[in-house]
Fold each of these.
Amino acid sequence: MHKRFISIVLVLANVLTLASCQVYDKPDETDASKETKTSAVKEEVFDTIEKIGNALAECNLEKFTENCVASSREMERKMPVVTEEDDDYKTPRITDEWRLMNLIASSITYEIDEGSFKGGFWGSKCSVDVTFSYKDYRRVKMSKNEFLGPAEFNTLLRDTAETVDETYTLQFVKGESGRHYVLSNPDDLVSVYNYDVSDVKFFKQFDMVKRCYLEGEGYDKKTDTYKDTNSFTIVFELDNRAENYTWSYIYAVVLENGSDWTYLYTSKTIIDKNPTEIRITYTQDEKFEDGFYAFFIYDQTNKQLVGQEFHVKNTPQDTVPGDASDASDASAETTAETT
């Protein structure tokens, strides 16, 4: 019995040893499975981060919301959305400040710290650190006192190498469909739009026009009237800022008939590099008829117009048929006498 007991114990020991070996081998399979699962979760989360980063740079609230657990009122209030309709003035005009914020946002980039990734049980929840960056607009602000609209500011911004960087711990959960991960703390990203541009000053192209005046043959400055002419000349005096820019404009000559305007001429777009003065002469074959005219240049980008209105009055032709006959007769008589 003693030997049998010992043999049973040995058998049990062998069984336990085999069992322990099996238990020892199984965790390796589980670890591999977990690693595969984590890799798949990472890929899905990083894909969502890419969509979020693009949405922030594009100021696309709809795309941003699609990748979050719910809409964010804070993000809706802070994201500087500018649409094509805004550019076409089909909706209330967006301020220059808001448009400038949109331009800064377009420089947003991101970098994922893959080593910071943490996954919850079976990947139901996870988090990762992401650094969002945008061009340091403050350096552009310090470079000049005022800018020719947001476009000039944006040109200088693109040439700026320095960035503002901020790191966020983004948290993700499975979406309702269970197919991809969505951001559960969207409000944290609102600060990526913390731009202070309220003190940036802008001016428009025609703000550089000091004054304009008419001149040329037949022009009377006192009465602001052209007489017996087929040519108009307008001159625009520009301030010192003008020579730092390339101008773009069209010009037109108009006959004003009450509320109806008859365009005698409209130019193509004129590109004028670094002008110190703009001088334009319009000439036609015949004399201009009597009437009230306008001669102006037009800035299509800023919807600005500047120019002069003036009168045209021609000298009356007081010829009487009888007088003409008498004159002809006298001429003939004189010729005859001379002969």
Amino acid sequence: MSEQVLDYNHKKRAKTPHNIFNMNIIVFHLFALVILFELNLLHWFWLIPTVSLSIMLAQYLYWKSLLSDAESSNQSHWYVIANWSLAIRHNKIVFMAYLICGTIFLIGYSISNGMTDDPNMSNIGMIVFLYLSGNLMLLTLVVTFVLSSGAIWHTNKGEITNALAKIRVGLNRQNIT
């Protein structure tokens, strides 16, 4: 990792996507989940992925506009765009985890409701698949949270990690400097 002299504004703008990502995980996947459990509002769990995916979509759209602005006018610094690209990678990991965990849950729902007429056995089957998909999602959220927190730490120091260097090469191919 090499260090580059960046001004405070660049570092602050480069931290923004990671801060948004971490707040998304903390507020919606941690606090909202606990609040819904405590208030026994299990039928409102669909709000968590809906709001989270909406935030990730807004980040993606802003990143695309940042890329198009940089291609046309060269006003954005490559370090800021590279950090947004890194945050989008973290969002893609979480999105893939949503797809995989949702698939596991739907398969479990289909299997547990189709195998037996006993509702108690169906509930046990659903709990097993819910446990599997929930733990996989939790593991993914913890890993991406740590990755994003590390990115914030590197950005505070103005460091260029290997991931940012690779993204910079891709940006240079697109004539974004």
Amino acid sequence: MSNLIVKLEGEAADEGTVPAFAALESMEGFAQAVSVILHYAETGEVRRRRIKELNAELSLVATREGSFEFLFSYPEYAEFMAGFIGNAVAGGITWDLIKRVFLSATGQGGRSEIDDDKSIPAGDFGALVQATEAAIRKSHNVVNHGSSNVTIFVNGDSNTINLNSETKAYMHESVFNDEARSQRFLVTSFDGRNRTGRMFDLEAEQAYTFELLNEADRESLETIVAAASAFALREKGRFGADMEVVAKFSSIDAPDGRTKRLKVMAARKDYSGLNEDDFLIDDE
């Protein structure tokens, strides 16, 4: 088992005490994010829902005084990850993946030894960042509410994860990118109740959450529903053009330009069905 330490520093934490609600909310968010990463490291599957049902062996072992510390433990899931990473790193392969997801989600980049293109299958890393983003945002709740800095580390690795007022501001900031673009996507899910779902960018090999805007016409809705249905009913391992759409969209981005969510204005089976003049966003 590997030990993972979450250390709260500054403000009340320096006196060995922290506000219970803010601190425990932060630890809940932290545990959710790490559980999703551990589940991926064990199975290769990115999960976004029913986190409590995951068989991720993350345990809270103890709390320690000083600058208030939470001590967690987890097994090293090397079997799946070893297929993509050749060299072990301090703290283990799984810890290196945890670091890289947290650093990317908080706008600090990837400082670990895992190379973006070779460490895990294409698209999986971006999906992990998206799947853990809300939980990592929640793990900041104690920042400025009992602690000024949260340091996450394992013994033997000098590279730490730091959550502070700057990373908190980054996670709560969204940039509305009103540039209208078009791209071919594989529609992997759609919920007609709230008009949201998931699309996979076939060129960038990256999945995104999307919202079909209320202004989109009925043909757009029918096109997306048909593609999502074809994907859901596909034979195992089969992917076809009936699962794809061409979407006209804008986006909500992170401050560093990373796309967080798509706002779909129109969808058709091919580019010829999109009239550029009809679906441009009005800047007025």
Amino acid sequence: MKKKIYFYLKIILIFTILFVNFLFITESLGASTPKLISTLEKAFESIEEWLIKLATPMAAVAVGSGLFMQKFSLGDEEKIRTGKKLVKTALFAYIFILAIDLVLSAIESLI
């Protein structure tokens, strides 16, 4: 599981670096922002908005389910562990999705 996460983070980092380098190259040549880049920026923003709108209720349901699972486990250790794991995973995923906004705003500030 951790290997997959690191793999996806590496891919995202590589594409981010390539994207930023492409923007600096076009800007340093005195060219205006290409139409493809502005289209990609708009697409990333709409994807980000869609993810946040979708992830917020999903994270709330997952955290609530995990807390209820812990509360009503009746002493079953497996259910308690599963509930804790569900809460941690939901919060981590939601924080990761919110961090997308920070990455995109950092890229925009560089442009």
